Input
Amino acid sequence: MLDRVVSQSQLLALVDELALSRRIVGPVRRSDRHFYGPVDRADKLDLDFKYCVYSPKAALFPADQTLFEFQTGPDGFQTSPVYDESPLALVGVHPCDINAIRLLDRVFSNTNIDEHYLSRRRQTFIVGIDCPTPCTSGVFCRDMKANEAREGADIMCSPLPPNGVSDDVRYGVVFGTDAGREFVLYSHAGDPPTVDDERASERYISDKARAFPQSIPYDVDALPELLERSYDSLLWEATARRCYSCGSCNLSCPTCYCFNTYDRLEMTLTSGTRQREWDGCQLRSFAVVAGDHNFRAKAAARLRHRIYRKAKWVKEREGVAGCVGCARCDRACTAKISSVEIYNQLAEEV
Amino acid sequence: MAVLGRQPTDKAKSLYEPEPAEVVSVEKLTDLENVYALQLASGHPLGHLPGQFVQLALLGIGECPISICSSPTRPNTFELCVRRVGEVTEHIHRLREGDTIGVRGPLGNGFDVHELHGKDILIVAGGLGLAPVRSLIQYILDERARFGQFHLLYGARSPGELLFRNDLTLWRERDDVNFHMTVDRPDEQWRGRSGVVTTLFSEVPRLEPGETQVVIVGPPVMFKFVVLEVLARRIHQRNIFCSLERRMKCGVGKCGHCQANNVYVCLEGPVFRYGELKALREAIE
Output
């Protein structure tokens, strides 16, 4: 059931309205590729993008972020936490990345509440755009059950076929949150859905179900069990022979959230900041402890760790899948290691 | 997501902000290890359990995880044994009495002392493993009436690497703890026992399997051999505990550095039952 129907120009007008009070981050074209980037006006966005090279994760969990500022003196030190609460709108987020954000929400709010993430997240309005077809070859979002996002976005827009009145792309809008509902209804954008719109939407859904190929020959709910039996498989070492441990997979992953912390000291040596920066489990030194013992010294152990995290452990800990099938890791890999290929090979092992 | 709608309860506090603590005393233990007695600037006790750790921060330099080596039964200060092995610990070793350092914690689970109450206790410590387990040793000695027999075995690589020499003397003199120690590589002055820590098991009388709790803390290579000795004494696997070492960056279950498979050592540990560890690959490999 749709809540509203808007044309692309109406959607862009809505984004301009958001831009009155929020920073806007959305898909922008740079040469022949798209990236999520900041814009001040909606017409700088390219909503006809296929996919963005990186997910919008960095807008919520920056690659380098200040946790607190400190000042030291003869009597000790003072600290003050740094939270970014400036309102933000993420526009044009695909279901895979919305599902990835749902995982980050979970990770940073369970057990110990991480205000550095959540203060940004609370101030973030998400305009999702659904994908009628796979954005590019090699994705396995359908297998990971992440090519749909029923929750996570404030409004979710699915492109509908033209209705013959105008050539403008039309979107069927579903409100994901009260904030989404209020925003669209108060701005009077678009129209209530007609019977034809609802039919078009149903057709959209059934067409979409056929458009996404199955890339993994089993239900991913079986993955944890498959992996349970593959810990000592030769596959890890065989695949890791090609791995350069460069961490490109971690860097490009919308669900990777591991980090390192470090201090930045001003020239005065009396003030500075504690920073956190993205880290990657594929880097050699990730699991090193004092005295230089490395608990995952081999590339094979690190590769296995990543795949287990993505396909088993994160789901078991957080209840939300650790992989959304966007295949950015596969595309980013400098050694052409493919996680979907690993998932396929695992099936042959049993 | 309910938490997203919830307003932050304690806006001022970040998970990652250390609180100031004053260095009350510094004691040199060996060439590499110093023990620091600290007091929170707030005046509050740290409020820890034996076996927990803190993140120790020198602002501008960095932070590292250090286990608390004193018992909460001695609440005025808390002690940390710091081995000089990296940049942060190198700088910590330059601290003097009266200096300020940052502390986050206590972190981790610690020993469940209630489960140990009323039982006979065997503690086996190797090397720097004595530091985390010293918090429990002190606790047992301070609350001695709550425990049955207390056997304590300690092994170090060489006489020069023995930690807490004053304690060792004290423990040897007490008749309510069956304490024995050994070094792997004795020097010419050494008059004590030599050999690996498992050779000390000859000093442990018959243990009552259901009534004995065992704590093993030391380097991975020691662990397997000690567990073997303990299992040979028919101790139940659920009654064997161990503390793991990892280099935590956040200490609050986010950063990923301390993971052993799907376990965050900073949250679910650092104290584990042997039964849990047995099933956990990468834990002591």
In short: Residues 180 and 186 of chain A are 10 Å apart (CA to CA). Chain A has a mean pLDDT of 94. The first strand of chain A starts at residue 4 and ends at 7. Chain A touches chain B through 56 residues (CB under 8 Å).
